[in-house]
Design a protein that fits this description.
By secondary structure, the protein is an alpha/beta fold. It has eight helices and eight strands; from the N terminus they run ββββαβαβαααβαβαα. It is globular.
């Protein structure tokens, strides 16, 4: 995987990663992968390879994660979307398909709404439109996550992300937060996610859209998937029975082929 650092318009350093299978055609279309809140590109470590025979995968570390470190500012999902456009510009990519999960899905909504010519297809996983129309997680779940040591919180997150059938442990997961983040950086991400509201923008999304969600997601309740799919013109909706917040990893053998099939139908070949 090729790794480099670029600088956003305000000088903030952004760590960028470009991947692909050895020997795969260089003219593959680009797939931008956007991770969840308080996570770096490592969110995609276990599933990224499944896309790389067909796509040139692109990730970047959000501000405050991984190799993208600098002064804490007023971070928003709109700012992260603007950073994504700068990454595409730096790589010379006129357009890309986008797969965003959790907070990454919120960023992806704004990318598709505000930069329609740059997004060839949109896949939204385990995410929410935000704002007053969204269905928020239950107060019990919020309290559950707020208590205990880091180890206890990691165990709680693991239960929210994976079913009991998943053989991994919290220490083996790359979905439970970037451990290098400071408390202030974590708060900055939480505020960005909490203030997101794309409700009015969703009907303007023109890119072909696939909305995915697990039916047992307590982090971002499943009802949000229907809200989004009903709001985006001609969006497709697919629910995964029993899936929790990390369904796209735990059910990779189902989810990745579904996404690849959708993208094969709607993403034009590179000219």
């Amino acid at each position: 995987m090729d790794q480099q650092t670029i600088h956003a318009r305000d000088g903030f350093p952004l760590a960028v990663q470009v991947g692909g299978s050895p020997g795969a055609p260089e003219d593959r279309p680009a797939l931008l992968l956007l991770p969840g809140q308080a996570n770096s590109h490592r969110w995609w470590d276990r599933v990224r390879g499944g896309y790389e025979e067909s796509f040139r995968t692109v990730t970047f570390d959000y501000r405050g994660t991984g190799g993208s470190r600098g002064e804490l500012g007023d971070w928003t999902t709109g700012l992260f979307a603007a950073d994504a456009i700068e990454v595409l510009d730096h790589l010379g990519l006129h357009s890309a398909a986008v797969f965003g999960t959790s907070m990454g899905g919120r960023v992806a909504q704004l990318l598709a709404a505000h930069h329609p010519g740059r997004i060839s297809a949109l896949v939204l996983g385990c995410t929410s439109p935000g704002g007053e129309h969204a269905v928020e997680r239950k107060a019990e779940t919020r309290r559950w996550l707020a208590r205990g040591s880091r180890e206890e919180q990691q165990a709680k997150l693991h239960e929210l992300f994976y079913t009991p059938d998943w053989p991994g442990t919290p220490a083996q997961s790359t979905l439970l937060g970037d451990p290098t983040m400071s408390p202030r950086e974590q708060v900055g991400h939480r505020r960005a996610s909490d203030r997101h509201d794309a409700w009015d923008a969703l009907p303007g999304i023109a890119a072909p859209t696939l909305v995915l969600h697990g039916t047992d997601d307590l982090m971002v309740p499943t009802e949000n998937a229907t809200l989004i799919a009903d709001r985006i013109p001609e969006a497709r909706l697919r629910l995964y029975p029993g899936g929790r917040h990390g369904f796209f990893e735990e059910l990779e053998d189902q989810v990745t082929p579904e996404i690849l099939g959708f993208l094969a139908d709607v993403v034009p070949p590179v000219s």
